[in-house]
Amino acid sequence: MLLSARLFFHILRDTLVVLSAHDLSVVKSDRLLFDKLNFSVEQGGLLYVKGPNGAGKTSLLRVLCGLLDSESGEVNFKQQAIHSVSSSFHHQLVYFGHKAGLNLRLSAIENLDFWCKQHEQNVSIEQIYQTLAELQLVGLEELPIGHLSAGQQRRVALARLWFKSSACLWILDEPFTALDTSGISLLMNKIADFLRSGGAVVMTSHQDLELDYPKQELVLEYRI
Amino acid sequence: MTPLWALFKRDLTLAFHQRAELIQPLIFFMLVVSLFPLGVGPNPATLQMIGPGVIWVAAILSSLMGLERLFRDDFQDGSLEQLLLSGSALPLVALVKVTTHWLTSILPLLILSPLLALFLHLNEAMYWALLATLILGTPLLSLLGAIAVALTVGLNRGGVLLALLLVPIFIPLLIFATSAVDAAALSLPYNAQLAIIGAMLLFALALAPFATAYALRVSQN
Questions:
Q1: Mind telling me which residue stretches traverse the membrane in this protein (chain B) (predicted)?
Q2: Does the residue A133 lie in any domain?
């Protein structure tokens, strides 16, 4: 009885796992960043990756979303290897990296409209205007992105988190960089809302995470 | 279809924003071709003899100039990452990019070509042959160029390397294209040359998007 309850619990736990890594090793420029890394993130789970510069946080996140190949080990999305289900995986993922992914010559509206269409999200232009207003970017919607400040550019890029409703996993690499305090709290709230609605988040940050939510920490060490 | 259509529209919009950058290779093309009548003298026979080769060489060189635009900006600002994670089929993305590149950077060269044919005293038969080889051959420049750009996009200053990689590959194209125009000058049929260029184009059309997609994925490493 106890055994079957345990088994049931394990199966239940497994179905809740959104992303898991098994024996993951990554080598970059002949340097082993980390090896035999194992972890999993469940629905509503927040994995907070910590470590000094050069420890491999960005590389880890890039491996998790399939941009970078790992030396060995595998990454599973809902129990299947990410490379075998890449289109459904990408449909449910938002990756936010160091590079904003915005073309400097196009306006915020053009950039975001293109992004939504490219990621097959049904978002109207009015919704984009609304979200940009929420992000305190009123009046800047139609300027080329290159004319905005660094923080404003980050805000435009972060608007994607508002648009991808099919996402159940966010991978955020230093999302707070260049944001002011109001931007940070806006983003914190958005992340908390997403987690409460059952989404999973993997993120790195050098700032302390003042988020009123249970988090799982993964500490990477700098290796020589 | 919508994601690809959106990409096509975005790239056309971008090209419109980068008009100045697009016009430069065009002016370069015109200047190079117009240097030849000044350099070798206005003798029609000489110009007619070197004309097709000059136009083709200038077309290849000027197409190399604008080629980097294909993926450079998208790589640097991170749009490429987002494109890779969008779930669209990457070979089709590459094909759309190549198409917009051809429409915005190379089609204007074709539109200018009658003027340049006039500079070089090409007769009508020669001009039609030249235009046919350009229409069939220039998409090949874009398709193969895309592979090389995707391969070198991660390197800083890949410009010269790009030329070194690509120019040797374009030699067969140059040979068949100029020989078609030479045949036309002698009023001989030149279907065979066109057929070979067409075959090269179809071959590249079938395989180059996959190679480009693979190279783009590797560029992220």
A1: 21-40, 46-67, 102-122, 128-153, 160-181, 193-216
A2: yes
